[in-house]
Amino acid sequence: MPSSFEDHWVNEQAATADVSQLEDCAIAVDASYYLQLFLDNAPYHEPLLPALGGLTGIQSHIEHDLDSWKANRTTPFFIFNGQSIEGEDDVSVQRGKRAIAGTDEAWGLYFQSQANEAVTAFGSHRGAYPVHHLFPLLQGILHRRGLHFLVPPFSASAQLAYFDMIDSEQCSAIMGFQELLLYPIKDYVIRFVDWDAGSFSAISKKSIIRTLGVTEPLFIDALLMAGTTFLPTFPPLKEPQITARQPPSVQDAVNMLRTSEKSVANACNSFNDILSKSRDPNWLQKYRKARMSIDHFVYIDESGEIKVHNFDTLTRDNWEYLGYQLPAELFHYLNTGLIGARMLSWISHGQIVVYPTLDGVKSEEYKRLVTSQLMPLRESALSVLLPRLHRGIQYKPIIVKPGSWPV
Q: Which of 107, 227, 296, 391 is the most buried (most CB within 10 A)?
């Protein structure tokens, strides 16, 4: 089953096939998506995750699933997210806040002795738990099993798209989020493998575009308007009087674009009154950055060189949507596990984002921890890297941006 955070209409377009088609193949898998499936779907789904404050038994669940891959003679090739892309941190914070609001309602049901309703409510709001906290655990398991994995400079989806574009010998298929459809992939994206049932599901980009009756550029714009991990949903689409079925789907975004001469800018002008009163009055600017980051995604090629897609048309202000250009040596250290992606994100985007807590508590002790007590450690870590970078980056300020309380 797919992730619950994604477009419901696209999920409905999945087709199934026999798992025997994956035998003796290597499948490139988005590690974040793989871990999200454990949070969202049975039999590993833990509905009380927000209430418990963490996961229980996740390592044994992962081990059991990897045993199934091996038993079916299929090799997973995991791709982990590197540093965050422009807008990703802000979307993660907003998703966490919404999840916390939902868990507050669940606690209310619990204290009213409505146990079953409370468990269901807790299980519906898992967005406050960042799956990247599980990266070291999964990487350790893969290392012990002798399974290869890769950490690209930025998005795992971008790296998977590159492998699919060139028909890489490293993998026969790709598995990941719907966001893979934003990139110039060949066609199919595996969504879920049910080893017990002996089947897997996949979505076809060509089939979806054909069903919608749109061009690929319009389809990409519609997907972005429906919301991604790095761009919030176009605010007018969230209005019930405009989109009756909530949350909105890519179909709704396509219909809106058709009434706006197939232009995102025209749609923003048409609904300027809603945009100006929303939380994202500058949504159009965010969209433009997101579109450019898709058109010029960063990846590691087959020879190990870091490259930018469509480099010839890269704009001079690319640091606005790709972040600062860091030395390739740092990305080698990232891939080998010597440094983490968070510190590179701090440097590249000039900010340290403090994510909401899992329980939503905004205690003074926690505020003091993240804004004062951790600062010397962060400064010490940054002082190891910054003196070795370009002088222009060395003197750029890095701010702490608490995402879970007003500042």
A: 227
Alpha helix segments (H runs only) across 146-271: 156-165, 205-212, 216-226, 250-258, 264-270
* φ/ψ of residue 406, rounded to 5: -65, 145
pTM over 0.70: yes
For the four alpha carbons of 47, 53, 55 and 57, in that order, the dihedral sign comes to negative
Q: In terms of Cα–Cα distance, which of 321, 276, 268, 269 is closest to 297?
A: 321
- Work out the end-to-end distance of the chain between its first and last CA atoms, rounded to an integer number of angstroms: 39
Q: What is the largest CA-CA distance in the chain?
A: 62
**Cβ–Cβ contacts within 10 Å for residue 407, how many?**
9
Cβ pair 51, 106 in contact under 8 A: yes
Of the listed ranges 13-17, 54-58, 304-308, 339-343, the least confidently predicted one is 54-58
| β-bridge mates for residue 282, sequence order | none
Distance CA 284, CA 281 (A): 8
Cα separation, 37 vs 134, in Å, equals 13
- Per-residue confidence (pLDDT) for residue 406, from 0 to 100: 41
Q: How far apart are CA 309 and CA 324, in angstroms?
A: 16
Shortest CA distance to 354 belongs to which of 286, 402, 287, 283? 402
Q: Which two tokens stand for residue 249?
A: 């789907």
Model pLDDT for residues 223-282, shown as the tens digit of each residue: 999 999 999 999 999 998 898 888 899 999 999 999 999 999 999 999 999 998 888 899
Residue 81: φ, ψ to 5° = -65, 140
Q: Specify the pLDDT at position 407.
A: 37
Q: Can you give the C-alpha Rg of the chain in angstroms?
A: 21
CB atoms within 10 A of CB 299: 22
Q: Which candidate, 249, 253, 205, 201, places its Cα nearest to that of 14?
A: 201
CA 30/CA 212 separation, integer angstroms: 26
Q: Write the DSSP string, 72-100.
A: TTEEEEEE---SPPTTHHHHHHHHHHHHH
